[in-house]
Amino acid sequence: MYSCECDTEKAKELSKEILKKYSFVREFVIGKTELYRKIYAYTIGEGTSLLLCGAFHGAERITGMMLYRFLDEVCEKMESDERFSSLMQEGGLTVVPIVNPDGVEISTNGVKTASNRAEFVSECLIKSGFPHSKWQANARGVDINHNFDAGYNKVKENERMLGITSPSPTRFGGEYAESERETAALCELCRQKSFKIACALHTQGREIYYDYGENTPSNSI
């Protein structure tokens, strides 16, 4: 079930299976993308202890699959371990497996999935020399991971050094922080819930990143 690409259709299948198996999991929509794809979140319990998010970047869609599997395994453990279940219900877990579904579709299934943005996406790819499989941004050519209000001025400075001044398959942080629907939706969720711990999953080859400059929480080391 977790051995293939995690595009939005596969995500729907995984979601349906998890919701069917575990009645205590709640699904809700935190927002919609430029192409009106829904951004789904799943929650267990009433607390706001932990938020896990993945697939900020289209080409890193494996993190979405990883989070669906993680959610499934947590639920399975809850059904067999009463103490663990009690802790999870009290503490709470929220998972947003695919923050950037438009980017995931472009990276996985090609330019045609960008609908009315297909010509724009194609032009960005031609300009950069990237294949569609390397597409990281959303359908507007904005890198969601660079669009948060966390070191945003430094992000823009780095862009200029790299010669990135307009929408691109990767690393363009947008015109201003939280300019994108995906970013705004996730930030609003965090403001509403005030999670104690928030984790963003990324993958580059065999490396796992946990820090972010001066903004790295002391308890993440």
Average pLDDT level: 94
Number of strands: 5
The proportion of residues forming helix, as a percent range, comes to 25-40%
**Molecular shape:** globular
Low-confidence stretches: none
Please indicate the percent range of residues in DSSP E strands (runs of 2 or more).
Answer: 5-15%
How far is it from the N-terminal to the C-terminal residue, by CA?
A: 33 Å
Query: Strand pairing plus helix content: what structural class?
Result: alpha/beta
Strand order across the biggest sheet?
Answer: 1-2-4-3-5
Q: Summary?
A:
The chain has 221 residues and is an alpha/beta fold. The chain has helices at residues 8-21, 62-80, 82-91, 101-109, 118-128, 152-162, 181-193; strands at 26-32, 38-44, 50-53, 93-96, 197-200. β1 (26-32) and β2 (38-44) form a beta hairpin.
Textual characterization of the structure:
The chain has 221 residues and is an alpha/beta fold. The protein is built from 7 helices and 5 strands, in the order αβββααβααααβ. The model has no long low-confidence stretch (mean pLDDT 94).
Features:
single chain, 221 residues, alpha/beta, five-stranded mixed beta sheet, 7 helices, globular
